[in-house]
Amino acid sequence: MQFDVVKKDNFFILQISGRMDAVHSSEFEKECAALFEKGMCNAVVDMDNVEYISSAGLRSILFLAKKIRTGCGEIRFCGLHGIVEEVFTISGFKGMFPIFDTCDAALKN
Amino acid sequence: MSNERLCYRMILHSRDEFSNLVSAIDSIAEQRDVAPSVVFKITLALDELVSNIFDYAFPGIPEPQIDVVVCVDNGVFFAKIIDNGIPFDMSKLQEPEVDKPLEERKRAVGGLGVFLVRRLMDSFTYYRYAGRNYAMICTKLDSENSEKGAGDGNDYH
């Protein structure tokens, strides 16, 4: 899993690539904790390059989302496609979060 | 696509060895030209089952072991996952609250993995026999003809 962060306007854009599974979920949560220390309030999570996601990956996304919402921030998703999108749908995540086709759209709304 | 049966068998002693199983699935996929989305579903189902077993089935078990056979035969993928853990019926796991908003979910997302297995595979069965847990999953390799929904719980044993 690779984790790149770009700051734009009031949002931290989290570009995730590779595998979001049990092996990488603690790494993801650590990266997120570091971003909260840097003052992250709102986040756009770019899932375009995520190759694989399991329930462990979904749990780490919930961890991030709960922390953001507890701080009254906002979390949005973009770049979902294929089977990763299907897993999002089945798990009920599509109904829980604002999801946009592109990151630009996620930032504009 | 060849219709001849192709199987791999391996013994896993820890979650770290799951990558061996991923290699076996990749090898099957390459030999039988399986669509990437189907490879993803199969890998995900095996990942969830193996992770659950290592997380819950082995308290106090001196030599934890999961014996996995994965096969393709006549356009169908199936896997048999046998472990020497404590009786562990995954059908008893609570369904996650997937239809509730985040703030209203009281439970941690326990059971989400098994829920995904049931939704992504055409069939998922479990039974306890002779001191071991048996889990079996099947799906068609041609995802267009998938009998989705069959794994929603009615076929649980």
From TrEMBL, chain A:
InterPro entries: Anti-sigma_ant, STAS_dom, STAS_dom_sf. It comes from the Bacteria. Residues 1-109 form the STAS domain. GO terms for molecular function: anti-sigma factor antagonist activity. Pfam families: STAS. Coiled coil: none annotated. Transmembrane segments: none annotated. CDD domains: STAS_anti-anti-sigma_factors (cd07043). NCBIfam families: ant_ant_sig. Belongs to the anti-sigma-factor antagonist family. This is Anti-sigma factor antagonist. It comes from Halodesulfovibrio spirochaetisodalis.
